[in-house]
């Protein structure tokens, strides 16, 4: 079928090379009856956009579509895609279209007392670790309380689980700090209690992550080591005979001491990021320009992926089975650990102007993720479109240090001491 009359693709001349396309969508409101067309090979998103709108008689200027060809978001003309993918043209080129995500809205911006080193959220609360050593407990309406936890800046935070004690519902969290320790803290509606201080690292604890089972926590430090800790609240203290916790005036509440279950060494510089692949495998990023996959049962490094830049963060997606890293050369890189060669990058996402300090996969999509950077921006990505981010989610006045997802929202914090909560 040839497009004629009022459609933008009507300007097809005999000199144009034609290509047959088949349009499809999973969004019922945008299904078209006639879906096979011959169009100019020089057609891009703009022309396809007009074609869909004319066929559906859509006049709203704010309704836009994205187009996926194979595993890629169409970025260029159809001709350039066919050339790069060696498409023969013997059959119709299938193109899937869907409505573009609307630009995110910043629903809440919350001023806190210091830099935000780590953030984690569980509806309806957000927990932020501050550089003054405090934990901020924030409601999504903007109200917040703060509690002293560490004597130095909090660098990361993880959510372990909810549990009930004395008929009170509590949130159990882990924080890591420049004071070389981690802390297990319990938060309820009225108070925050330090339960255990995790001692073992000899330098700043940059990062921590909770296992899928919630039974263990992993931590990475400037001391180059990876440590694994039990999250059980029923174990006796490991190295301090005290049975009662004391609270000192003007200082964080004292807590029982806990030592690690396991210590793993292999990195030659600081461990900057850690995440769990499953309950027995861990992934770390490091300033030594490597990603390592660890087997906690074998107590050894199972694989090393060497990169060309110092890494600042790492994240694993169960959905896409890909590793994402943020680096000091301003790129987000994706790796497929199932490949035979760990040095091959699955793709490189280009959009930041400075260090990428944090990366987080969407909990509901296998192709979407967010990244935060020292350029002050938090970006939303569809990994099928590596050269162009979907949207700028938030713009901070200083470097972004952390980000997380929460029920259709993205939360970010950084050196401007502002917590941004953005609706997608």
Describe this structure in words.
With 424 residues, the protein is mostly beta strands. The protein contains two helices and 34 strands. It has a five-stranded mixed beta sheet, covered by helices on one side. The chain has a five-stranded mixed beta sheet with strand order 11-12-13-14-18, with no helix packed on it. The chain has helices at residues 45-56, 78-85, and strands spanning 18-24, 36-40, 65-69, 72-73, 93-99, 105-111, 116-122, 125-130, 134-139, 144-148, 154-165, 168-177, 182-187, 192-198, 205-210, 216-221, 225-230, 256-258, 262-265, 271-276, 281-286, 290-295, 300-306, 311-317, 322-327, 332-335, 345-349, 356-361, 368-373, 377-382, 391-395, 400-406, 409-414, 418-423. The longest helix has 12 residues, at 45-56.
Features:
5-stranded mixed sheet, 34 strands, about 5% helix, about 50% strand, mainly beta
Topology (elements, then pairings):
Elements (H helix, E strand, L loop, with lengths): L17 E7 L11 E5 L4 H12 L8 E5 L2 E2 L4 H8 L7 E7 L5 E7 L4 E7 L2 E6 L3 E6 L4 E5 L5 E12 L2 E10 L4 E6 L4 E7 L6 E6 L5 E6 L3 E6 L25 E3 L3 E4 L5 E6 L4 E6 L3 E6 L4 E7 L4 E7 L4 E6 L4 E4 L9 E5 L6 E6 L6 E6 L3 E6 L8 E5 L4 E7 L2 E6 L3 E6 L1
Parallel strand pairs: 1-5, 14-18
Antiparallel strand pairs: 1-2, 3-4, 3-5, 6-34, 7-8, 8-9, 9-10, 11-12, 12-13, 13-14, 15-16, 16-17, 17-19, 20-21, 21-22, 22-23, 24-25, 25-26, 26-27, 28-29, 29-30, 30-31, 32-33, 33-34
How would you characterize the largest beta sheet? 5 strands, mixed
Alpha carbon gap, first and last residue? 38 Å
The percentage of residues in β strands lies in: over 45%
Please state the CA-atom Rg, rounded to the nearest Å: 25 Å
Structural shape:
globular
Provide the structure class.
mainly beta
Given as residue ranges, the uncertain stretches (5+ residues, pLDDT < 50) are 1-15, 241-252
Number of contiguous helices: 2
- Name the strands of the widest sheet in spatial order: 2-1-5-3-4
Q: What is the typical, i.e. mean, pLDDT?
A: 88
Which percent range fits the helix content?
A: under 10%
Number of strands: 34
